[in-house]
Fold this protein.
Amino acid sequence: MQSFDFCRPTNIVFGAGRVSELSEIVKKYGRKVIFVTYEEKMADILGLRKKILIPFSESGLEVQEHYGVKSNPTVEHTRKILSSARSFQPDVIVAVGGGSVIDECKFISAALHYNGDPWDIACGKARIETVTPVIAVVTMPATSSEMNDTAVISNETLKRKEGFSDVKMVPAEALLDPEFTYDIPLKQTGYSATDIVSHLLEAYIVHQEAFVPMQNRFCEGMIKTVIDCMDRIIENPRDKEARAMLMWTATYAWNGFYVCGLGSGNPAIHILGHSLSAFYDTPHGAAMGITIPAVIRYTMKERTARYARMSRKIFGVDEDDDCRAAHKGLEMLIQWIRKMGSPTTFREAGIPEDNLEALAADALKTAEMWGVGDKYTLEMCKDMFACCL
């Protein structure tokens, strides 16, 4: 076990119907609220006006509404919000959505206190000095953004997607009401499930610690939980128990807890995936469906024993030979990702196969930004993308 610091001060409010408590939660932080979510059509489908905005008004809260967050949130959209939010001077930001909305709200919470271009924060040119509190109301469980210190923002002009972190960005509160998830279409739910698995696998497949049974079993058990939940949700999309369990699993998949003691890691799955989202606006979960198998293929020889363990513990592969077990488990993982409705190759996603050089250069830049550039070369990134074909 390596040394680590771990602090997650987010207050979790979990349970069906608990959105009714949101107004009182908000009042702890003040009366002026910025409300941010997806397109208004999606807000109507989720019943956000009835469940959130009307109760806000009845509680005497002053609300500024903002819509239009994309699945890959952009600095361009953030700038539009900031143009009116700065004069409004909110006491708190309420993010209603999945990781994309929560990430953009974390970004807004820091950018409100910075006088320059907010993109400076995303690309590390400006430090986060202070933030406006964020309350995350999760409607699309996937990224753990409601309980971690990380955000990702895309710059459509530059075709860049930056991930950045600061403990100040951890949401103050997270309201997890499974009722919001009952009507999420299976395709979006499948993308979310794939994303959850990508977060769990990221550390599991690369760490070098010899004896970390808690972390290994936590990861294996959580992935099996995702698989069990999705089996039930595919059979009955409104399975309340499965939806609730998937939501809680998503929150703990990447909130910094299970990776404690495993070291800084090497997030190749996300390094590659960010480039796909930046270049082709590929939904994050769909990008993960492509890059998970690619990274495993690329590292199969050096990590055969780890993948063999994954195959046996998660997929129940009954095979004594590590090499055969590892390859069989990879094929079972690919079939599961396809079952989730996610692509597993460029061709399945409709991504051009002749742009590997540019993708590799972008991925290398991301690796350098994340402090692991010494572990990559341009040729290595290109070879990993070739494993996506």
